[in-house]
Design brief:
With 378 residues, the chain is mainly β. Helix content is 5%, strand content 42%. It is built from one helix and 23 strands.
């Protein structure tokens, strides 16, 4: 699993983060000039991810619809509530990621967000057992983001973010003798930290605007005691282990790859988006969105047995995800509203990470619907 994370990528993430931090410190105030007269309020980022990117704040492209619009005008402190419904053949997710945004100046924005909601999915732990419908809910992972606008016309935006493992990621169900840890898709958190770097570019055209962006997520973990948190409870049998000892006794406080103490592994990932916003109708911004997500490696999942440390490649791993979305913002000065619908498309599941063509049998079986509102506090 470690082979998917290179030292070069880690260095690149750190250097890019330092460069973005220096940009935030050194840049002065200002306003966007030129263009075709688009007014996106005072927020440096007029688009946001509906419901967060998964419960943990950093997930797959199959969980995103972006808000494109004119934003709520004025104010230094804004609140956003963006519920999302995602359903398929055997699952239903209802999530909302309330976001508190502080804008000390036009070019800089600080954002705090945490997903909350509920998930329901059909689970079959063994092939000789009947599937059962399981529900889980609560809060997800806390995310802190800094957005900085730059460029002669303010056409670029840099993003630096960190997601903290505040959501539960090892919830189990069953009796004292037959407990099973829920699958990761039912957990509200991921059990790892995630660093995010992003770059957004936009330019105006007649009756609209184009937006292109790229986001890199780099999961990692932190344990100040440098040992697996379950060694004194579920994993007591592994205290004197000699093989794969680094799974339980870590060499450093920071684990440079995204593996949780249960063995879930999250590879780094890349998201690329292309969006066209159409604004010819007064008071309405329509957006046509193409979102693409790809992981740099195969995801691994934990054993359902709480006392067994036996992670395996995820049999439901997908090498790429695409979402085709349509959104409408009803532009209002202080209280804009948003409606969105998304249709995911992805390749066939493969635990070996092979790239395949689209899984047309599943196309149209999964849908996303979103409703959002924003308001200025002061």
């Amino acid at each position: 699993m470690k082979s998917y994370v290179s030292a070069g990528m880690a260095v690149a993430v750190i250097m890019a983060g330092v460069a973005l931090s220096l940009s935030v410190v050194s840049s002065g105030g200002g306003s966007r000039s030129g263009g075709t007269g688009y007014n996106f309020g005072q927020s440096p980022a007029p688009w946001q991810c509906i419901g967060g990117c998964g419960a943990g704040g950093a997930g797959s492209g199959s969980e995103g619809i972006r808000w494109i619009g004119e934003e709520a005008a004025g104010g230094m402190l804004k609140v956003e509530v963006l519920p999302k419904v995602n359903f398929g053949r055997n699952f239903l997710t209802v999530m909302s990621a309330p976001r508190l945004t502080f804008t000390p100046r036009y070019t800089t924005e600080f954002v705090v967000s945490m997903p909350i909601g509920t998930k329901e999915m059909e689970v079959q732990y063994q092939t000789n057992l009947q599937p059962e419908l399981i529900r889980n809910g609560g809060r997800g992972d806390l995310a802190l983001d800094i957005l900085q606008r730059f460029g002669n016309e303010g056409q670029f935006i840099g993003k630096l973010g960190v997601t903290f493992p505040t959501g539960e990621w090892d919830v189990s169900r069953g009796t004292d003798f037959t407990k099973n840890i829920l699958p990761q898709r039912l957990q509200m958190g991921r059990g790892v930290y995630t660093g995010t770097l992003g770059l957004f570019y936009s330019f105006d055209v007649e009756d609209g605007m184009w937006v292109f962006d790229g986001l890199v997520d780099y999961p990692f973990n932190v344990r100040f005691d440098k040992k697996n948190r379950y060694l004194d409870s579920d994993y007591t049998a592994y205290r004197r282990v000699t093989e794969n000892r680094e799974r339980f006794y870590y060499r450093h406080i920071v684990k440079s790859y995204g593996e949780s103490d249960r063995g879930d592994y999250y590879p780094p990932s890349l998201q690329l988006d292309a969006i066209y916003a159409y604004r010819r109708i007064p008071g309405l911004v329509q957006s046509f969105q193409f979102l693409f997500w790809v992981p740099f490696g195969v995801r691994w999942i934990h054993s359902p047995n709480p006392t067994s440390y036996y992670p395996v490649p995820d049999p439901d791993h997908r090498s790429w995800d695409v979402v085709l979305s349509y959104g409408m913002e009803f532009s209002r000065l202080r209280f804009p509203l948003f409606l969105g619908v998304g249709l995911p498309l992805h390749d066939r599941s493969d635990p070996f990470g092979r790239w395949d063509g689209p899984d047309w049998k599943e196309f149209g079986q999964e849908w996303l619907f979103a409703f959002g509102l924003k308001a200025v506090i002061f």
